[in-house]
Specification:
This protein is an all-alpha fold and 159 residues long. The protein is built from six helices and no strands.
């Protein structure tokens, strides 16, 4: 695999993750929006840890905070925590079957919701409605197809 191939796929995947977070959805679907940026970040931390780390997670999180108009630093903190946990357990996660990886990613997305709730609670901001707790489950279900798609893009077609 050439460096050029990873070179354009990495930023393009983060840009797509940011754009999917901005995609307008009907009101009833808002709670089910998966955290696309976290899913993309999880893929890159597991598959290309030399290219993605805590610094990139922080920068992407700040960019997401600016784009989404939320509390500055909230998504950066959430993504850094997720990246730290993924880096800590990367060697184990990498060799899990895809179904077990999906469970682990689902737990990480649930942990992300808990961190977001703790931030909102500590600052006295309104908490997310209960319906928003379904998004980690949807992210867990989307992990296998997203992983396969991104792996195919990263590795290219083999002959």
């Amino acid at each position: 695999m050439s460096r050029l191939r990873v070179g354009w796929i990495l930023p393009a995947s983060f840009a797509l993750g940011l754009l999917l977070g901005l995609l307008p959805l009907p009101e009833w679907m808002q709670p089910l929006r998966p955290y696309w940026l976290a899913l993309v970040l999880a893929y890159w931390v597991i598959e290309a840890p030399d290219n993605v780390g805590l610094g990139l997670a922080f920068v992407v999180g700040v960019v997401a905070d600016l784009m989404y108009g939320g509390l500055l630093g909230e998504q950066a903190l959430r993504l850094v925590i997720m990246t730290f946990l993924l880096q800590r357990f990367r060697t184990r996660l990498r060799f899990f079957p895809l179904s077990q990886q999906a469970l682990a990613v689902g737990v990480l997305l649930l942990n992300d919701r808990i961190v977001a709730t703790a931030i909102h609670f500590s600052l006295g901001l309104p908490l997310l409605p209960l319906a928003y707790w379904w998004a980690p489950l949807l992210g867990m279900l989307l992990w296998p197809p997203l992983f396969v798609l991104m792996d195919a893009l990263r590795m290219g077609k083999r002959k």
